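We examine the record.

___
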Amino acid sequence: MVIGLTIVGVIIAGIVLGGFSLYNLVEQKESGVNIAYDVVSTQGAAENLTGMESVKVHGTVWNIGDKVAKNVTVTIIFTDPAHDKVVRKTVVEGVDLLPDGVQYEKFNTVYFRELTIPKTLVDETIQIEWEEDGQLKTLTSR
C-alpha cells in the first residue's frame, strides 16, 4: 500500500512539475519587427585572377514579425586580419520589409584579397539596420 501511494505521489508530482515546465517553455511572441536571415559564405581561389582569392557571401533577409521593417540596410563586414583590413559592403539599402515573411531580399557580394601562405580566413559579420516605431534598430551577427 505504501509503495502504491509513493508511485501515485511521484506521478502527481511529475504532472504538476511537468505542467510548470511546459508553462515556462512557452515562447512569448512580442509584437514588432522580427528580422530573419540566411547567409552562406565561401572562400577560395578567385576565378581568372592569379594570386588572388575571393570570399563570396550570398544571403536572404526577411521579416517574420507583425510590423513593417522600414528603410532596411544590410551590410557585410569582412575582417581580414592577415592583411589588416576591415571592408564594409552595403548589399541592401533603403528597402521596406513587409511583415509575416511575405517578402524577402536576396543579396550577393564578393571580397577579393591576395593569397596568404599559410592559408588564413576572413571573418564575415552581417549587420542589419531598420526603423521601427521611429527608432533605429540594429542586429549584428557573425
